Amino acid sequence: MKQNLGLLQIRTVVQMGLLLAGLGEAQTLQWVKPALASLPSDRCCGAMVFDPLMRASLLFGGGNGGIEPAVRYNDTWTFSSTGGWSQLSPATSPSPRQGAGIAYDPTTQTVVLFGGGTGAYTYVNDTWTWDGVTWTQQFPPVSPRACEFDTQGMVYDQATENVVMFMGGNCSPSLAETWIWNGRAKTWTQKFPSTSPPPSNATIAYDAANGEVVLFGGNMNQTWTWDGTTWTEQFPATSPSPRGLPAMAYDPIVGSVVMFGGSAGAPSALNDTWTWNGTTWTQIQTTYTPEGRWAAAIDFDPYLRSIVLFGGELAGDPFTNQTWLLVPMR
User: What is the value of pTM for the model shown?
Assistant: First the structure.
């Protein structure tokens, strides 16, 4: 299969792969770089989540990591299976920032965005929601402290119907706090679990197959799960190497959490792909693979039936606006 294909070609390949898998033929995952007419500018640390109402991935902001002078964006983009990347022009937007936490809240059919870094070591703690047309700032009675995530710091927990946020290393000060967002009440509530991951630049995803939130990394190779009450460290037989800021999302087609890349200590970058099945990690091999990177944006597009990976910081510290898809095929 070619590395560069149009979105229509990719949809056809995916549909054929799923059909053959249904007929009993083996299904594998492959990274594909779609040919796209337009792209957001090079960046890391963008906040991206799939918005079912828009039938598209929603990307907000990003920047140039810790490089000076600091560059931050507050542009809003969508990536869809039919139109590729398109920039939106909402009437109101959060201030320019990188590393905001983001999640889709189906209880209110809105995207919720929290915090991020507006400059070098300058963090904010404002909360915004996206309704498909514009951004609206929310003013909950209590808010978490200012924090920047640079990767997936927030995720919707289907089991508790709340958004879960783990606050790690890039906070003021460094934290190991767990908060939940109740979209109906528009409130943040801090949780006090009996055990918790250490402060770190870890990433989280919701494992729908096992009904729990999974956390990995933070310059370590620890795996933790959240059951709605407490964090529990897992000790899988196989684990990825220690890393910070990997990209991680749940893929319902394969029924596993997928993780890509991360940093083993800047300026090095990893480009391995792993899956988590609730018990252990398994590395998967693909014909093509994106360049190693950390702080890339990631989500799952149910219309492309593929993991979407965008941007990130490459080895040696350049930034990219590459878009890659991890697609199922025979």
Answer: 0.93
